[in-house]
Write a structure and sequence with these properties.
Oligomer: single chain
Structural class: alpha+beta
Distance between the termini: 32 Å
Largest sheet: 4 strands, mixed
Radius of gyration: 21 Å
Strand order of the largest sheet: 1-4-5-8
Strand content: 15-25%
Order of helices and strands: HHHHHHHEEEEEEEEHEEHHHH
Bound molecules: flavin-adenine dinucleotide
């Protein structure tokens, strides 16, 4: 792709707006929100005001109708808020829980769920994983049984980002038999009787995002809230995972870039044995290796973004990008922390919090092992 630059001047202007917002309005509160284990709910309408939800969705429902490179610019700049929990919550809301409504929802569902989510009035979560079914999505057991014009939901979900304060869930339920064939998607308002947020999980990182365990006991919702065709939810979920995994790869690359830049700055200012750390060749070479690998991760990810933007099949490329970027982020974070010495181990240092937060990326949204399984299958390894 000679001279390939996916970002036009319009993308770059949008990027500058997001950067300014993150650096000026969000980053100054990064530690405070981590310590509070929460960020203000008012940030949802604020993000909406800046057009950060529904970037690709039709203007008819309040979206901006733009291409995927705007999402990439948004996700890249979002790391500058220096609060990975906030970034995760916003990306789950805008890029993981609501795109399926735009793609397969009815006009009524779009009016009732998509439009208020794009306005930041209703918070959305994507509820797929269960205590006994994470990687193995086809093993989910939460049921939605037909009763007249209603569906009655029973079961539980686990590790659900935004779960504690979501107004609705894009919920994976079992409507049919076992395996992937009996799964449906359902839009589930959380004020439904019988729904309960059991608890917020105490996590290793991303403390400002809520990650909840949810219970459903005889929860009655109208059948018109079924999203897409009954029993066809698995295929939609697999499609939805593509966007989720791609944005995770984009964020991992941006997070690595930021960690290395922070580290170069620190290593240039801090001296040991009579010279800046940055002059010690072992570290110069280590950072050069990381910068090279990050660049490779970026272009692998951009290749997947380009296919995704053009609605091409990109399962292999997206899985490779998530695998490569998220695994690499662990090595980069380790070395960036190490080069900060003692300062790398105190939470006032951005790199320390980034090291802790980046750990989730090889687990959430599909583990590295599952990405390898997908790549192997795509390569014909049956
Ligand atoms: C911070 C965070 C946020 C999350 N947010 C959400 C959310 O918003 N919505 C949601 O639905 N879920 C969410 N999840 C859940 C996440 O998607 C699952 O944790 C993930 O898919 C792994 O599932 P599991 O935890 O059940 O692990 P398991 O599936 O039990 O896997 C355990 C280990 O076994 C490995 N393994 C499993 N199968 C294989 C195999 N075939 N071959 C080799 N190794 C294998 C895995 O890679 C892993 O290392 C979140 C998780 C985290 C940590």
């Amino acid at each position: 792709m000679p001279g390939f630059d996916p970002f036009t001047e319009e993308h770059q202007a949008f990027r500058r707006t997001v950067r300014k917002f993150c650096e000026e309005e969000l980053a100054p509160h990064a530690r405070e929100w981590d310590e509070a284990e929460e960020f203000p709910r008012a940030l949802f309408p604020r993000f909406a005001e800046l057009g950060l939800f529904g970037i690709r969705e039709p203007p008819e429902w309040g979206g901006s109708g733009l291409d995927y490179w705007y999402v990439v610019a948004y996700a890249e700049e979002l790391v500058r808020c220096r609060n990975a929990g906030l970034a995760m919550a916003m990306l789950v809301h805008g890029e993981m829980a609501i795109p399926a409504i735009a793609e397969i929802g009815t006009a009524e569902q779009k009016r009732e769920f998509l439009a208020p989510a794009i306005r930041g009035e209703k918070i959305a979560a994507l509820a797929v994983s269960e205590p006994d079914a994470g990687s193995d999505v086809a093993a989910i057991r939460t049921t939605a049984r037909r009763d007249g014009d209603d569906l009655v939901v029973n079961g539980s979900k686990m590790w659900i980002t935004n779960g504690a304060r979501a107004d609705f869930l894009t919920l994976a339920v079992r409507t049919g038999g076992g395996g992937h064939e009996g799964i449906s998607l359902l839009l589930f308002p959380t004020d439904t009787r019988g729904f309960q947020v059991s608890r917020k999980l105490e996590k290793v990182g991303n403390p400002s995002s809520d990650t909840a365990v949810l219970f459903f006991e005889d929860c009655r919702v109208p059948r018109r809230f079924l999203l897409g065709e009954e029993d066809q939810g698995f295929a939609h979920l697999m499609l939805n995972f593509q966007g989720e995994r791609l944005v995770a790869a984009v964020q991992a690359v941006a997070a690595m870039q930021q960690m290395v830049e922070d580290t170069i700055r620190y290593a240039s200012e801090r001296s040991a044995f009579g010279k800046p750390l940055a002059k010690h060749q072992v570290w110069r070479h280590r950072l050069a290796e990381h910068l090279t690998a990050i660049e490779a991760a970026r272009w692998l990810t951009y290749r997947a973004c380009d296919l995704f933007d053009r609605n091409q099949v990109a399962v292999k490329e997206i899985s490779m990008a998530k695998l490569f970027a998220c695994d690499l982020a662990q090595d980069v974070a380790y070395d960036c922390m190490q080069l900060h010495g003692g300062m790398g181990y105190v939470l006032e240092t951005d790199v320390a919090r980034a090291w802790r937060d980046v750990r989730a990326t090889t687990i959430a949204g599909g583990t590295s092992e599952i990405m390898k399984e997908i790549v192997a299958r795509q390569a014909g390894l049956t």
